[in-house]
Specification:
The chain is globular. It contains one helix and four strands; from the N terminus they run E-E-E-E-H. It has one domain. A hairpin with a 2-residue loop joins strand 2 and strand 3. The chain is an alpha+beta fold. Helix content is 25%, strand content 41%. Strands 1-2-3-4 form a four-stranded antiparallel β-sheet, with helices on one face.
Length: 79
Amino acid sequence: MDSQLTPAPPDRAILIYWRFPRPNGQTLVCTSYRTTRGLELRAGVDGEPPVLSAEIATHVEAQRLSEVWRQHIARSIAA
């Protein structure tokens, strides 16, 4: 048996729930990921580390949380 540690596979994007284009050309995005720990929901600027993230149990939970985040971000953009 090889004693070397096997690196963990990278997180895999599963579903994009929403995108918000911003006037500065950036896009805010909310995506669910399969990780070594299970499912995770992440939101932030596309291509950058997430600003919001949460471990989730189901896709239904991800849909609900992504909608809460979408409404919060929409209100903050409108303000």
